[in-house]
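Tokens in:
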């Protein structure tokens, strides 16, 4: 019976070794045939795996359980970060020879997620489960968002929840192969780490206690957290405080230079950028004093001579010929091309791709570029129109010239806070889909 227990206590480590080897082979395969990662990523993961196997094979007398737990969290976090990268962007690039601060921050945030879960719940298995659940939820959300609009979850999406609810029924949520494999991998990793923890607990018992426990039930209770765990927690806390208090501009600029597979660092920049930052020496009183001497020029054009202005924003319309000659056997936009008399037409650059339609509306109606606002995911319709009574722009300018202004939106009024926005912009009439 003693030999049976001794053999069983290494089962999880052996399974982890086999599974880590298979994961490394998959990373190499993704690099060789699909260029979805780099060989250095596979090399780094193999090195982390070999170190983990070497540590876990050691008896608790030689390697403290605290050190094993720390490494289990590190390994699980690295594994989770890779999965999150693939689910978010379909890629994960960790270049050891060109390691940058954003990659380091991204890895640190992943470790912090799993580590604080471990310190909160006191069990490695539970921490891995919680961490994997968070990674899975974020990864799935990002996977769908990137598929639908080309960008992962951002803080501004919280305020845009009602808009998302309005259009969500139009999308296909069938999971693809990458999502299925990633979720299965997270579940299998949780099970392996749970088995490893169970065997580690068995090793701390006396031989007689091992036999009794193995024959009845699994050991329960929180694992003891010693100096190593608390020391690591202090280091994690200091690192998190440094990131929170550090300059936002540096983090924002650097995250914009790299792919979205460093998603946690990207999300941190987004969170820090969502907090309003006023210019140095700014005050509302000083701004008001500057505006006091500024007057809009009055235009004396008689109301009966001004032209009617109709602006149609059609986000589904595009002239793909701007990309180059496309061989076709019928005219693409025959009527559009025929419009010459009393018509001004051309092309415009927009700041959105696949989502946040409201930003194009805002830029047209105010002449303000969204790119000028500090914040990674700024959506002015959601950010700046909650307490504003009047928001000057094209609408108020035309009203001053005698125009009657009407806003039409052929869908629900809850999308992008449009009711409040159109009122603040001083539209006299506001019509949504319920009126059609």
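Residues out:
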């Amino acid at each position: 019976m003693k030999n049976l227990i001794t053999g069983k206590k290494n089962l999880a480590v052996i399974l982890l070794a086999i599974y880590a080897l298979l994961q490394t082979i998959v990373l190499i395969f993704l690099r060789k045939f699909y260029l979805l990662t780099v060989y250095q990523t596979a090399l780094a993961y193999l090195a982390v795996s070999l170190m983990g196997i070497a540590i876990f094979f050691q008896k608790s007398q030689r390697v403290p359980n605290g050190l094993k737990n720390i490494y289990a969290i590190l390994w699980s976090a690295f594994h989770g970060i890779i999965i999150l990268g693939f689910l978010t962007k379909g890629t994960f690039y960790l270049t050891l020879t060109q390691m940058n601060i954003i990659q380091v921050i991204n890895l640190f945030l992943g470790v912090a997620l799993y580590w604080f879960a471990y310190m909160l719940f006191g069990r490695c298995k539970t921490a891995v489960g919680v961490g994997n659940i968070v990674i899975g939820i974020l990864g799935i959300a990002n996977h769908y968002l990137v598929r639908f609009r080309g960008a992962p979850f951002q803080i501004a999406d919280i305020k845009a929840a009602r808009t998302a609810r309005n259009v969500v029924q139009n999308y296909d949520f069938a999971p693809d192969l990458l999502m299925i494999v990633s979720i299965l991998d997270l579940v299998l990793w949780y099970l392996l780490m749970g088995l490893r923890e169970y065997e580690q607990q068995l090793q701390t018992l006396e031989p007689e206690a091992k036999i009794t426990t193995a024959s009845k039930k699994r050991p329960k209770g929180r694992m003891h957290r010693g100096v190593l765990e608390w020391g690591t927690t202090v280091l994690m806390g200091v690192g998190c405080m440094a990131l929170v208090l550090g300059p936002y501009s540096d983090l924002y600029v650097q995250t914009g230079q790299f792919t979205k597979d460093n998603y946690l660092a990207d999300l941190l920049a987004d969170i820090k950028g969502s907090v309003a930052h006023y210019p140095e020496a700014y005050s509302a009183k000083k701004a008001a004093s500057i505006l006091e001497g500024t007057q809009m020029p009055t235009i004396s054009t008689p109301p009966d001579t001004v032209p009617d202005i109709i602006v149609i924003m059609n986000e589904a319309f595009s002239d793909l010929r701007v990309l180059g000659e496309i061989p076709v056997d019928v005219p693409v936009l025959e009527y559009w091309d025929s419009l010459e008399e009393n018509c001004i037409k051309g092309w415009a650059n927009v700041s959105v791709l696949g989502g946040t339609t409201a930003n194009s509306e805002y830029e047209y109606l105010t002449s303000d570029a969204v790119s000028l606002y500090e914040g990674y995911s700024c959506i002015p319709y959601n950010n700046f129109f909650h307490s504003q009574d009047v928001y000057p722009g094209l609408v108020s300018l035309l009203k001053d010239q005698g125009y009657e202004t009407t806003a039409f939106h052929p869908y629900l009024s809850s999308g992008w806070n449009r009711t409040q926005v159109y009122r603040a912009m001083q539209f006299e009439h506001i019509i949504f889909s319920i009126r059609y």
